[in-house]
Amino acid sequence: MENLTAPLPADAAGGIDELLSYMDGPAEKPVAEPVAFEAPAPRLGMGSLMRKIPVTLTLELGSTRVSLEDLAHLSTDSVVELDALAGEPLTIKVNGVSIGKAVVVISGENYGLKVVEISDLNLDSLAA
Fold it and tell me: Per residue in 45-69, is it b (16+ CB within 10 Å) or e — as a string?
């Protein structure tokens, strides 16, 4: 808070305008110069580092909701109906995020998938 009891300068006795200007302080107040923000330069090689991060790719056959009672009664020969239609492409997921559709194929001695639809890959949404 400003000290209002400071003695008036000799030239302030000339009138109310001079008195008010004295109380307001100096006419020119210091103004900070705007500083331009510069983002740091991107680190080289980040793309190649990102490519090496392991993710989990799954092919979702389908799903359904069951009660805990039904779950408790599952046995070896139980059949649970899923929400996916037979013959339709299955959902490809990366770390639980849907990225497209695929069909099952045989690849050597293993199952594989053939991509039939792929979405834009947003790497931020795939982070585990």
Answer: eeeeeeeeeeeeeebeeeeeeeeee
**In CATH, what number is assigned to the domain containing residue 88?**
2.30.330.10
Residue 122 lies inside a defined structural domain of this protein: yes
Whole-angstrom distance, CA of residue 109 vs CA of residue 23: 91
- Please tell me the distance from the alpha carbon of residue 32 to that of residue 34, in angstroms, as a whole number: 6
- pLDDT tens-digit map of 88-107: 999 999 988 999 999 999 98
Residues belonging to the chain = 128
**pTM exceeds cut of 0.90:** no
Q: What range does the domain containing 58 cover? A: 46-126
